[in-house]
Write a structure and sequence with these properties.
The strands form three sheets. The chain has a four-stranded mixed sheet, with helices on both faces. It has a four-stranded parallel sheet with strand order 6-7-5-8, with helices on both faces. A two-stranded antiparallel sheet has the order 1-2. The protein contains eleven helices and ten strands. Helix 5 crosses helix 6 and helix 6 runs parallel beside helix 11. It folds into two domains: 168 residues, Rossmann fold; 117 residues, Phosphofructokinase domain (Rossmann fold, 3-Layer(aba) Sandwich). Helix 7 links the parallel strand 6 and strand 7. The chain is elongated. The protein is of the alpha/beta class.
Length: 307
Protein backbone atom coordinates (compact mmCIF):
# COMPACT_ATOMS: atom_id res chain seq x y z
CA UNK A 1 0.00 0.00 0.00
CA UNK A 2 2.90 2.38 0.60
CA UNK A 3 3.72 2.51 -3.11
CA UNK A 4 0.11 3.49 -3.75
CA UNK A 5 0.20 6.19 -1.06
CA UNK A 6 3.41 7.54 -2.59
CA UNK A 7 1.86 7.57 -6.07
CA UNK A 8 -1.25 9.40 -4.86
CA UNK A 9 0.79 12.08 -3.12
CA UNK A 10 3.20 12.71 -5.97
CA UNK A 11 0.58 12.52 -8.73
CA UNK A 12 -1.49 15.08 -6.80
CA UNK A 13 1.48 17.37 -6.17
CA UNK A 14 2.39 17.13 -9.87
CA UNK A 15 -1.01 18.77 -10.50
CA UNK A 16 -0.53 21.31 -7.68
CA UNK A 17 -3.02 19.56 -5.40
CA UNK A 18 -2.33 19.25 -1.68
CA UNK A 19 -2.71 15.86 0.02
CA UNK A 20 -3.36 14.69 3.55
CA UNK A 21 -2.97 11.19 4.89
CA UNK A 22 -5.72 9.84 7.14
CA UNK A 23 -4.30 7.60 9.85
CA UNK A 24 -5.83 4.18 10.56
CA UNK A 25 -8.43 4.30 7.78
CA UNK A 26 -12.01 5.04 8.79
CA UNK A 27 -10.95 5.20 12.43
CA UNK A 28 -8.89 8.26 11.49
CA UNK A 29 -11.80 9.80 9.63
CA UNK A 30 -13.98 9.29 12.67
CA UNK A 31 -11.42 10.84 15.04
CA UNK A 32 -10.15 13.50 12.62
CA UNK A 33 -6.60 12.13 12.70
CA UNK A 34 -4.89 13.32 9.52
CA UNK A 35 -1.70 15.10 8.52
CA UNK A 36 -0.30 16.77 5.44
CA UNK A 37 1.79 14.58 3.17
CA UNK A 38 4.63 15.99 1.10
CA UNK A 39 6.89 14.56 -1.55
CA UNK A 40 9.59 14.10 1.07
CA UNK A 41 7.31 12.41 3.61
CA UNK A 42 6.62 9.61 1.13
CA UNK A 43 10.17 9.34 -0.16
CA UNK A 44 11.53 5.78 -0.07
CA UNK A 45 8.37 4.19 1.33
CA UNK A 46 7.60 2.08 -1.76
CA UNK A 47 10.00 -0.62 -0.54
CA UNK A 48 8.33 -0.97 2.86
CA UNK A 49 5.66 -3.54 3.66
CA UNK A 50 2.44 -2.62 5.43
CA UNK A 51 1.32 1.00 5.33
CA UNK A 52 2.75 4.14 6.92
CA UNK A 53 -0.83 5.35 7.43
CA UNK A 54 -1.66 2.21 9.43
CA UNK A 55 -5.09 0.62 9.43
CA UNK A 56 -7.83 -0.25 11.90
CA UNK A 57 -11.42 -1.37 12.08
CA UNK A 58 -13.86 1.26 13.32
CA UNK A 59 -17.24 0.14 14.63
CA UNK A 60 -18.17 3.75 15.42
CA UNK A 61 -17.88 4.73 11.74
CA UNK A 62 -20.52 2.10 10.91
CA UNK A 63 -23.16 3.88 12.99
CA UNK A 64 -25.19 6.81 11.54
CA UNK A 65 -23.76 9.15 14.17
CA UNK A 66 -20.18 8.02 13.62
CA UNK A 67 -20.54 8.19 9.85
CA UNK A 68 -21.82 11.76 10.07
CA UNK A 69 -18.95 12.64 12.39
CA UNK A 70 -16.55 11.32 9.78
CA UNK A 71 -18.16 13.46 7.08
CA UNK A 72 -17.96 16.51 9.32
CA UNK A 73 -14.25 15.85 9.90
CA UNK A 74 -13.68 15.50 6.16
CA UNK A 75 -15.17 18.94 5.62
CA UNK A 76 -13.33 20.45 8.59
CA UNK A 77 -10.03 19.14 7.23
CA UNK A 78 -10.80 20.66 3.83
CA UNK A 79 -10.68 17.29 2.06
CA UNK A 80 -12.30 17.55 -1.37
CA UNK A 81 -11.82 13.96 -2.50
CA UNK A 82 -10.67 10.62 -1.09
CA UNK A 83 -8.59 7.77 -2.46
CA UNK A 84 -9.55 4.69 -0.45
CA UNK A 85 -7.06 1.81 -0.62
CA UNK A 86 -8.32 -1.53 0.60
CA UNK A 87 -10.55 -4.55 0.20
CA UNK A 88 -14.26 -5.26 0.43
CA UNK A 89 -14.92 -3.39 3.67
CA UNK A 90 -12.91 -0.33 2.66
CA UNK A 91 -14.59 -0.15 -0.73
CA UNK A 92 -18.05 -0.43 0.84
CA UNK A 93 -17.16 2.53 3.02
CA UNK A 94 -16.02 4.45 -0.06
CA UNK A 95 -19.36 3.77 -1.72
CA UNK A 96 -21.24 5.08 1.30
CA UNK A 97 -19.14 8.23 1.35
CA UNK A 98 -19.75 8.72 -2.38
CA UNK A 99 -23.49 8.35 -1.82
CA UNK A 100 -23.23 11.00 0.91
CA UNK A 101 -21.66 13.44 -1.54
CA UNK A 102 -17.96 12.92 -0.81
CA UNK A 103 -15.98 12.23 -4.01
CA UNK A 104 -14.27 8.85 -3.66
CA UNK A 105 -12.16 6.57 -5.84
CA UNK A 106 -11.14 3.15 -4.58
CA UNK A 107 -7.93 1.23 -5.22
CA UNK A 108 -8.05 -2.57 -4.64
CA UNK A 109 -5.68 -3.92 -2.00
CA UNK A 110 -6.17 -7.55 -0.98
CA UNK A 111 -3.58 -10.31 -0.89
CA UNK A 112 -6.38 -12.81 -1.61
CA UNK A 113 -7.04 -11.15 -5.00
CA UNK A 114 -10.76 -11.53 -4.32
CA UNK A 115 -11.94 -8.16 -5.66
CA UNK A 116 -13.91 -7.95 -8.91
CA UNK A 117 -13.06 -5.37 -11.56
CA UNK A 118 -9.30 -5.88 -11.56
CA UNK A 119 -6.93 -8.57 -12.77
CA UNK A 120 -4.74 -8.09 -9.72
CA UNK A 121 -4.99 -6.38 -6.33
CA UNK A 122 -2.21 -4.67 -4.43
CA UNK A 123 -0.34 -7.15 -2.24
CA UNK A 124 -1.26 -10.32 -4.10
CA UNK A 125 2.00 -10.74 -6.00
CA UNK A 126 4.14 -10.20 -2.91
CA UNK A 127 2.11 -12.71 -0.90
CA UNK A 128 2.28 -15.25 -3.73
CA UNK A 129 6.06 -14.96 -3.86
CA UNK A 130 6.28 -15.37 -0.08
CA UNK A 131 4.30 -18.61 -0.30
CA UNK A 132 6.38 -19.78 -3.25
CA UNK A 133 9.62 -19.27 -1.33
CA UNK A 134 8.22 -21.33 1.55
CA UNK A 135 7.04 -24.10 -0.80
CA UNK A 136 10.49 -24.36 -2.38
CA UNK A 137 12.06 -24.87 1.04
CA UNK A 138 9.37 -27.27 2.23
CA UNK A 139 9.76 -29.37 -0.90
CA UNK A 140 13.46 -29.94 -0.10
CA UNK A 141 12.56 -31.44 3.27
CA UNK A 142 9.55 -33.33 1.91
CA UNK A 143 11.63 -34.97 -0.82
CA UNK A 144 14.53 -35.90 1.47
CA UNK A 145 12.23 -37.54 4.03
CA UNK A 146 9.61 -38.81 1.54
CA UNK A 147 6.83 -36.99 3.35
CA UNK A 148 3.59 -35.25 2.57
CA UNK A 149 3.35 -31.61 3.59
CA UNK A 150 0.02 -29.86 4.01
CA UNK A 151 0.63 -26.13 3.64
CA UNK A 152 -2.09 -23.76 4.87
CA UNK A 153 -2.21 -20.37 3.16
CA UNK A 154 -4.54 -17.37 3.31
CA UNK A 155 -7.67 -17.19 1.20
CA UNK A 156 -10.94 -17.21 3.12
CA UNK A 157 -13.23 -16.80 0.11
CA UNK A 158 -10.81 -16.98 -2.80
CA UNK A 159 -8.27 -19.63 -3.69
CA UNK A 160 -6.14 -17.45 -5.97
CA UNK A 161 -3.09 -17.42 -3.67
CA UNK A 162 -3.18 -21.17 -3.19
CA UNK A 163 -3.63 -21.86 -6.91
CA UNK A 164 -0.99 -19.40 -8.13
CA UNK A 165 1.64 -20.47 -5.61
CA UNK A 166 0.72 -24.15 -5.98
CA UNK A 167 1.11 -24.11 -9.75
CA UNK A 168 4.34 -22.10 -9.61
CA UNK A 169 5.72 -24.22 -6.77
CA UNK A 170 4.86 -27.60 -8.26
CA UNK A 171 2.38 -28.72 -5.59
CA UNK A 172 0.73 -32.09 -6.17
CA UNK A 173 -2.66 -30.80 -5.02
CA UNK A 174 -4.35 -27.47 -4.33
CA UNK A 175 -7.60 -27.22 -2.37
CA UNK A 176 -9.58 -23.97 -2.55
CA UNK A 177 -12.94 -22.67 -1.26
CA UNK A 178 -14.39 -22.63 -4.78
CA UNK A 179 -13.67 -26.33 -5.27
CA UNK A 180 -14.19 -28.52 -2.16
CA UNK A 181 -12.74 -32.05 -2.20
CA UNK A 182 -13.50 -35.18 -0.22
CA UNK A 183 -10.93 -36.92 1.95
CA UNK A 184 -11.40 -40.00 -0.24
CA UNK A 185 -10.28 -38.02 -3.32
CA UNK A 186 -7.25 -36.65 -1.48
CA UNK A 187 -6.14 -40.06 -0.17
CA UNK A 188 -6.67 -41.68 -3.59
CA UNK A 189 -4.57 -39.04 -5.36
CA UNK A 190 -1.81 -39.37 -2.77
CA UNK A 191 -1.72 -43.15 -3.23
CA UNK A 192 -1.52 -42.76 -7.00
CA UNK A 193 1.36 -40.30 -6.64
CA UNK A 194 3.19 -42.86 -4.49
CA UNK A 195 2.65 -45.50 -7.18
CA UNK A 196 4.08 -43.10 -9.78
CA UNK A 197 7.26 -42.91 -7.71
CA UNK A 198 6.91 -39.36 -6.38
CA UNK A 199 9.25 -38.84 -3.40
CA UNK A 200 6.94 -36.30 -1.79
CA UNK A 201 3.38 -34.96 -1.85
CA UNK A 202 2.68 -31.26 -1.35
CA UNK A 203 -0.89 -30.08 -0.71
CA UNK A 204 -1.60 -26.34 -0.62
CA UNK A 205 -4.84 -25.51 1.20
CA UNK A 206 -6.54 -22.11 1.32
CA UNK A 207 -7.86 -21.19 4.77
CA UNK A 208 -11.48 -21.16 3.58
CA UNK A 209 -11.26 -24.56 1.87
CA UNK A 210 -12.95 -27.72 3.04
CA UNK A 211 -11.60 -29.99 4.36
CA UNK A 212 -9.21 -27.77 6.31
CA UNK A 213 -5.44 -28.15 6.29
CA UNK A 214 -5.51 -29.47 9.87
CA UNK A 215 -8.21 -32.04 9.07
CA UNK A 216 -6.29 -33.25 6.02
CA UNK A 217 -3.03 -33.71 7.92
CA UNK A 218 -4.72 -35.61 10.74
CA UNK A 219 -6.50 -37.89 8.29
CA UNK A 220 -3.37 -38.64 6.25
CA UNK A 221 -1.55 -39.76 9.38
CA UNK A 222 -4.32 -42.18 10.40
CA UNK A 223 -5.53 -43.65 7.11
CA UNK A 224 -4.38 -47.16 6.24
CA UNK A 225 -2.63 -48.08 3.00
CA UNK A 226 0.36 -46.74 1.05
CA UNK A 227 0.96 -43.17 2.07
CA UNK A 228 3.46 -40.53 3.08
CA UNK A 229 4.01 -39.41 6.64
CA UNK A 230 2.29 -36.00 6.78
CA UNK A 231 3.37 -32.70 8.33
CA UNK A 232 1.37 -29.49 8.67
CA UNK A 233 2.75 -26.00 7.98
CA UNK A 234 0.46 -22.98 8.35
CA UNK A 235 2.17 -19.87 6.96
CA UNK A 236 -0.16 -17.38 8.67
CA UNK A 237 0.57 -13.67 8.77
CA UNK A 238 4.07 -14.03 7.33
CA UNK A 239 2.24 -13.80 3.99
CA UNK A 240 1.11 -10.24 4.72
CA UNK A 241 4.50 -8.66 5.31
CA UNK A 242 7.85 -8.10 3.70
CA UNK A 243 9.28 -5.85 1.03
CA UNK A 244 6.86 -5.70 -1.94
CA UNK A 245 7.83 -7.16 -5.29
CA UNK A 246 8.54 -5.00 -8.32
CA UNK A 247 5.23 -6.09 -9.85
CA UNK A 248 3.34 -4.97 -6.73
CA UNK A 249 5.13 -1.62 -6.62
CA UNK A 250 4.38 -0.94 -10.28
CA UNK A 251 0.74 -1.99 -9.90
CA UNK A 252 0.24 0.18 -6.83
CA UNK A 253 1.89 3.14 -8.54
CA UNK A 254 -0.34 2.83 -11.60
CA UNK A 255 -3.47 2.54 -9.47
CA UNK A 256 -2.57 5.45 -7.18
CA UNK A 257 -1.72 7.84 -10.00
CA UNK A 258 -4.82 6.84 -11.97
CA UNK A 259 -7.05 7.32 -8.91
CA UNK A 260 -5.84 10.92 -8.62
CA UNK A 261 -6.43 11.56 -12.32
CA UNK A 262 -9.96 10.17 -12.07
CA UNK A 263 -10.79 12.24 -9.00
CA UNK A 264 -9.52 15.41 -10.62
CA UNK A 265 -11.55 14.68 -13.76
CA UNK A 266 -14.71 14.64 -11.64
CA UNK A 267 -15.21 10.89 -11.35
CA UNK A 268 -16.42 9.31 -8.10
CA UNK A 269 -18.05 6.14 -6.82
CA UNK A 270 -15.64 4.01 -8.82
CA UNK A 271 -12.71 1.70 -8.27
CA UNK A 272 -9.64 1.88 -10.47
CA UNK A 273 -8.44 -1.58 -11.39
CA UNK A 274 -6.00 -3.09 -13.86
CA UNK A 275 -7.02 -4.98 -16.98
CA UNK A 276 -4.49 -6.26 -19.52
CA UNK A 277 -1.88 -4.02 -17.89
CA UNK A 278 -3.90 -0.80 -18.19
CA UNK A 279 -5.89 1.08 -15.53
CA UNK A 280 -9.67 0.88 -15.90
CA UNK A 281 -12.58 2.27 -13.89
CA UNK A 282 -15.52 0.22 -12.61
CA UNK A 283 -18.50 1.48 -10.57
CA UNK A 284 -18.25 0.45 -6.93
CA UNK A 285 -21.83 -0.83 -7.09
CA UNK A 286 -20.73 -3.39 -9.69
CA UNK A 287 -17.50 -4.26 -7.89
CA UNK A 288 -19.33 -4.99 -4.66
CA UNK A 289 -22.27 -6.81 -6.24
CA UNK A 290 -20.18 -9.68 -7.59
CA UNK A 291 -17.97 -12.39 -6.17
CA UNK A 292 -14.78 -13.04 -8.04
CA UNK A 293 -14.87 -16.54 -9.56
CA UNK A 294 -11.99 -18.98 -9.42
CA UNK A 295 -9.33 -18.53 -12.09
CA UNK A 296 -10.27 -21.40 -14.40
CA UNK A 297 -6.98 -21.21 -16.27
CA UNK A 298 -5.05 -21.76 -13.02
CA UNK A 299 -7.42 -24.60 -12.09
CA UNK A 300 -6.75 -26.27 -15.45
CA UNK A 301 -2.99 -25.80 -15.13
CA UNK A 302 -2.96 -27.16 -11.58
CA UNK A 303 -4.65 -30.36 -12.75
CA UNK A 304 -2.16 -30.85 -15.60
CA UNK A 305 0.99 -29.95 -13.64
CA UNK A 306 0.18 -32.28 -10.74
CA UNK A 307 0.89 -35.44 -12.72
Amino acid sequence: MNACVRAVVRAALYRSVETVGVSRGYSGLWSGDAQALTSRSVGGIARWGGTILQTARCEEFCTPEGFQKGINNIRTLGIEGLVVIGGDGSLRGARELHNAGIPCVGAPASIDNDICGTDMAIGTDTATNTILEALDKIKDTASAHQRAFVVGVMGRRSGYLALAAGVAGGAEMVIVPERPMSMEEIVKEMAQARERGKPHFIIVVAEGARPTATDICECLNTVAGPKYEARLTVLGHVQRGGSPTAADRLLATKLGASAVEMLLSGQSGIMVGIRAGRPVAMPLDEVLAEERPADEELVRLEEMMAL
